Amino acid sequence: MMLSIVCPIYNEVRYIKGCIESIVAQDYPKDSLEVLFVDGMSLDGTRDVVQQFMSLYPFIKLLDNPKKITPTALNIGVTAAKGSIIFRLDAHAIYPNNYFSILVKYLEELRADNVGGICRTLPVNNTNVCVAIACALSSPFGMGNSYFRIGIKDVKKVDTVPFGCFRKEVFDKVGLFDEELIRNQDDEFNGRIIKEGGCIYLIPEVIIDYYARDSIKKVIKMFYQYGLFKPLVNIKLRKPTTIRQFFPVLFVIGLIVGGVFSIFTSLVYIYILVVSLYWCLAFYFALSNIRKIKRLGGVMLLPFIFFMIHVSYGWGYLVGIFKVIFKSSFSVVSNR
Start and end of every Glycosyltransferase 2-like domain (predicted)? Predict the structure, then answer.
């Protein structure tokens, strides 16, 4: 069975070598494989690295993506793909050597439309900030019930998976990725699959090593953009994809409205109590990760990172609501 691997890239020189090495180490037959790296015209040497591997492995190809955005890259790759099964990969990850074979097996056994694995989020380096960010992105307090981030024990039907394995016929049925969605294009695409009666499964035996952002500023930007595009996704699907998406925006509205009203009323005590409860929970979850982080500096940063994730996502969501209402542009710069 022919597989087509589609991987959007742009200035990935820090990660691309490890990603490609994990792909060529797969136990799937190489004569039934094509790997399509779709590049947004990288300037940092990423293309040179890919071309070095192309000289060694003829199944690796490099395609251009002048628009530089992820959904366009995905559509270029899917359109060019020759395989009956398509994998959508990310360059910031290392894949186990049975990644393709196991997901293809489950795709067939479950008669699924998309299957994916668990993300084991790793720090880019060993600083307190990077270790705390990686921990926050795999914490239930930081991510809610995002199962592919926090992990599960058994195969589970879900609303989305990372770096999925799709039947190519799914794209004929529901269309390509929506290029208006610079962020959350996967969520919207998976939402269309479910809307058409398809099934998506998370496979816990498949674990991907995924490298988190390396600064709090980048985390804030990422979650702001995730929140920003969620209302647009909901409008396109005509329903919310999850319930958990509403909690950050309600938290932000509560902070703003509660803060204003508490100044002029006796509600100030309730407001202080609620905010204090949030910080108590944040510190509780931070301390519960002390064995994982193994350093006091990282543990003390974790509550602040939780707060930044929730507020940036919630604020982005609020801005996204107003953009939908007033039909404003959603253009952002989404690269790391």
Answer: 4-122
Domain boundaries, the chain: 1-91
The single-letter code of the amino acid at 178 is: D
Cα separation of 149 and 98, whole Å?
20
Strand partners for 325: none
Tokens matching residue 217:
């500023």
Q: Is 7 helix (H, G, I), strand (E, B) or coil?
A: strand
d(CA 213, CA 31): 35
Protein fold of 1-91:
Spore Coat Polysaccharide Biosynthesis Protein SpsA; Chain A (3.90.550)
Q: Which of 75, 14, 93 is nearest to 49 (CA)?
A: 14
Q: Looking at residue 58, what is its pLDDT? A: 96
Parts of the chain with a pLDDT under 50: none
Cβ(54)–Cβ(62) below 8 Å: yes
Integer CA distances (angstroms), 240 to 137, 184, 197, 221, 228, in order: 22, 13, 16, 22, 14
Its pTM stands at: 0.92
37 SS3 class: strand
Question: What distance in Å separates the CA atoms of residue 53 and residue 17, rounded to the nearest whole number?
Answer: 9
Q: Do the beta carbons of residue 213 and residue 222 sit within 8 Å?
A: yes
Name every residue whose Cβ is closer than 8 Å to that of residue 197 and which is 6 or more positions away in sequence.
none
| pLDDT value for 199 | 96
3-state secondary structure of 143: helix
User: Is 28 within 8 Å of 101 (Cβ atoms)?
Assistant: yes
Q: How far is CA 138 from the centre of its chain?
A: 12
Displacement of CA 278 from its chain's centroid (Å)? 25
